[in-house]
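[job 4471] stage=fold_predict status=RUNNING
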Amino acid sequence: MREVPMKKVLVVGGAGYVGCVLVEELLAKGYSVRVLDRLFFGRDALGSSLDRVELLTEDMRELDPSHFEGCGAVINLGGLSNDPTAEFDPRANEELNTDAAIRVAEMARQADVERLVFASSASIYDQGVGQEAEDVLMDEEYPVDPKAAYATSKLAAERRILPLAGPEFAPVAFRMGTVFGFSPRMRYDLVVNTFVKDALSEGRIHVFYGGSMWRPLIDVKDAARAYVNALACDPQLVRGQVFNLAAGNFRVSELALRAQRTLQKLGVPVELDIDYSYRLVRSYRITSQRAQRMLGFSPRVTVEESIEHMVAEIRRHGYTDFSHPRYYNIEWMKVLEEAAQIVSRHGYVLSQLVEAPEPARQPGVVSRISSARTGRAG
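[job 4471] inference complete, writing structure tokens
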């Protein structure tokens, strides 16, 4: 492990759910940080980090060489982050998760950046329920054939980014398990976070399809530590490599029981609402032994510890308006699209001093919002 941090790290998507936690971890380790983010969810999540980072409010599809100046590493967390948002706007999903991700890597290499870490997804392993014959622990060499738009976009980016590896450029991809835990840019559309939200707001946890599906999980703080580890490792260990990243694999039914037990210890009464009817659900298990062996990474945060911390921070920050769309990626995208449509027609909301932008030429929330800012789609 190297002791001297790289001169500066560019974090694409640094104001997001994982990004704002990662930025704090990088700063704590002595890195200089440049954040590039569209700030669709605002800048408040960066909190005290704001006066310690260089913030670029930009679209990752519109990067130029100046964004990479002085950077020794790039961590790309940008793009659409789950199945619902990818399916809501397939065109934007391909533009951001595949095309822009590849361009970020290519431009980083051209700018003599030493290392790039790409946030991929373990959802590319999804087998679905009812595939018991394929219910195995999948490593990085396991053959994959994802069908969902989000997973296919991530895999397509991986397959173009990793071959860019060379003597002076070390790209690495993390296939992330489902992240959970408290973040200043809080999300309640992730399985453990959803359980906590439902318990606090309704006094019950809803478990679909009997909770029989498997899910690999990792706490957001552990995820942030893993990204920092990837910067400090010998480049020979990570150059052109892909790593699964999870603290463990859990059936959703087990997660519900562990959440219920932990919440009850905190004085939160919780009932389980089990629904056994069929739903379209994801199910897969992965092994993270390669990351443990080659990166020396071991998770530290248990599900129970994460839930305890989550409850305390939700109450401390007052994130108890649980129905607000800002906590749910797809709902917030819909709100922003409606707002962008209104602004594109009228050119203003409260002030007529704002010049009316041209209407977007393509459907979809990300394209329209980009048009409202830049005057062109995409």
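[job 4471] summary: Residues 358-365, 368-378 have pLDDT under 50 and may be disordered.
[job 4471] exit 0
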